[in-house]
Amino acid sequence: SARCNQGRVSVPCREKNSGSKCVISMHSRTTTIIQDPKNPGHTKTFTFDLAYWSHSGFQKDKDGVFISADRGSKFAGQKEVFHDLGRGILDSAWQGYNTTLLAYGQTGSGKSYSMIGFGANKGIIPNVCEELFQAIENRDKNQEYQVTFSMLEIYNEQVRDLLSRIKKPGGLKVREDQQLGFYVDGLQSVPCENYAQIERLMEQGAKIRTTASTNMNASSSRSHMVITIQFKQVFPDRGLTKQSSINLVDLAGSERQKSSGSEGDRLREGSRVNLSLTNLGNVISALADAAMGKKVLHVPYRDSVLTKLLQSALGGNSRTTLIAAISPADICYEETLSTLRYAERYDYEYLLSIVTHSCPFRISEKHASFTNSGGKVTVTPYGKCKVIVNGVPITTKTKLQHLDRIILGSNSAYLYIGFPSERGSEDLSRFDYDFFQLERAAAEGVSTDKLGAVNSGDGKADPSVLAVFQDYVKLMPLVAEANQMSEELKKGLNMELKVKNLASSDSRGCDLQKEVTVKVTHQRTHQVWIWSKAKFINRKFLMEELYQRFLDGEDSQVAQEDDPFWDPVEVVHLGSAHIWLQSLAYCMKFEEQVEFLNCDGLEEAVLHIHIKPCSPTGQARGEEDVVTDPVDLLGKRMDFQIRLVQCLGTKWLKEDAERGVQMGYRIYDLPNTLYTKPVWKIVNPQIDETVQFTTLNASQEFLNYLQTNALIVDLWGLQGTMLTSPFAWWPLARDINQICTTQQVSYDREFARALKVFYQSINVARGQFLKLRHYKPPEDDQMLRPFVHQQSQMLKDFGDLLESSLWKLKNDVALIVKQKKECLLHAE
């Protein structure tokens, strides 16, 4: 662990026109003293890695550059600041570290001046870029260097690309990727060959950047600006690539709204700016606490757009520096004190920095051999090392063809270019990272077609299914890495991706929503777990921490409850069987052997099941009871039995004889799922359990259910040290009492329906009555007689409707009560 975050305090004076007094003094290059203007005897001292004085003691040279006025001056110009900070950033980038420079402070304190500069006084950013290309010119010509430049602004929690003249409403979206972390979708990253290109891009971005006209400074930014330089070094002779990212961040002003003169709608903007800076401080505080050995449960990166994008800079593989720019003016005492405290808190933070190489742990020192014999090139895996050619894993010597795709380990991809005679005018740009991963997914049998992404009706892709496919492709390398770590740490786990509900449907035959899961199998105990995508990603982060300890030679043994590779034993959903109930709508029996299909649509077991209509006492109905139209059963009592006879050829039990199974199902509006008794250690378990169901008044809704729905029986796998099933077993007796209790919901529904009809009728009657009230006798006596006649008729209609409504409600309620009494008598 290395201390790599340093608080740098730069103090340019920007308040001479305010008639203010200086309250800052520096007696060394590391110590800053601030004096309370209301109590001159009260001072506070802060110590940092470096402190710069730029308030006085300077003059301009012939080129317009600020330099020290004399040898005794403590003035520090842009050249000194770059020498101390900028060169360290460049050195870290050349070594392969990600580097970040943050400029923090009140608007008007000189943040942008330190970062960008003005006129001949170039700031850190242009100096870093210029020095980078000068160093590239002087380096080994056999090496390849790639530099890309991006520039964005965060204003009121919205992101804008400063290299694009098109401003997207609402800003660019910040998205999250398992590998990249948070990133800005659609942000331009421009390749640059020299400093002149970067200089033009910076000028373009500076013109577009949002500025706020406050009382402090007409050109002072109220937005965060983030410049990112991606620097890649390729060493062909060693087969090595170093990649680093230089993040240069000019933060928005941290002033209080009162002193900035902001008012009206600007208050909302100011609060958002200050909120993002507060969130940044909270993140730094949490990291500082962690560095001091305190227990930190959560680092709040997600609380603002700024901290999301700076996550890798603050808490990841990065060397980070903070410039805290302060004003020496007494009127800015509160802001200056706040900035110094902020920088002091930042100075406690410690981070682990790791050089980013392209040859990670996933490739072994001896991984595979490539042989050219007689113009034929072959690749041979070494031992059990993982090698994939064109999406298919290989274990023996394999001949390579021009443009073959090769993956070594979990995620290092290569494109084989054949001999000159084999080459043509192919477009090599299509062989990107996504191409390799899509090919792997297709080889594993997962594609958009198989997932059903394209609707056969309109030919358009289903966005939800495409999202599942993208999740699958993104998780593939992560699962491969997790398996590699499991193998090296000797955890004995094998993880594989599955698509939940790939071939599953609901009781009406409609496809269920698909999602990516990870099936985890212990190779020795054969225990199985199913992890959700979110759970797997969380576990993988913990696995990486444990694996890093292993690489560092530290003790990688942890308590079982803290081991990311361990989980308590749980039940596993093996598959579902669909039994269509249409025969019951015609009073016909059904006896069949139905397949349990797993999530891949493959047979997991076979269920022997009987479904038959019966009498109230359980006697089977004969052919004479068959009806040709389900309407004949409307309003009548219906009884039927479901008998689960046997489960045949259960693969779950064949794989491990110590396992068990249990089945469960629900029917119609039954409030609970019914489960069979758990059965252990029998490949073809005999279930032989029967339930009788009764509906005392078959409704049209129930008959429709029988004609259009299937009974879904779920097969659950029990395993390991589970002494009992987690599912409550329903004693599947033939006792009619249990059946009657299940009809309570139906009775309540019928009663509610009767009340609804009554209410609708009364509502119609109420409308007629209101209409009657609005009739007024006309002034013409000759018209009085027809009016009285019409009024009498309306009153009669109203009375008839009211009476019929009340009569219908009375009879409906009486019938429902009678049916409930009959059920209770049968139960007794």
List its salient traits.
single chain; 828 residues; alpha+beta; Kinesin; Tumour Suppressor Smad4; nine-stranded mixed beta sheet; 18 helices; 27% strand
Write structural notes for this entry:
The structure is a single chain. With 828 residues, the protein is of the alpha+beta class. The protein is built from 18 helices and 37 strands. It has 5 domains: 6-346, Kinesin motor domain (Kinesin, 3-Layer(aba) Sandwich), CATH 3.40.850.10; 368-427, Tumour Suppressor Smad4, CATH 2.60.200.20; 451-562, no CATH class; 572-742, Immunoglobulin-like, CATH 2.60.40; 749-827. Strand 24 and strand 25 (412-415) form a beta hairpin. Helix 1 (78-95) packs across helix 3 (124-137) and helix 10 crosses helix 12 (463-488). It starts with 5 loop residues before the first strand and ends with a helix. 31% of the residues are buried. The model is unreliable at 1-18, 210-220, 257-271, 348-361 and 730-746 (pLDDT under 50).
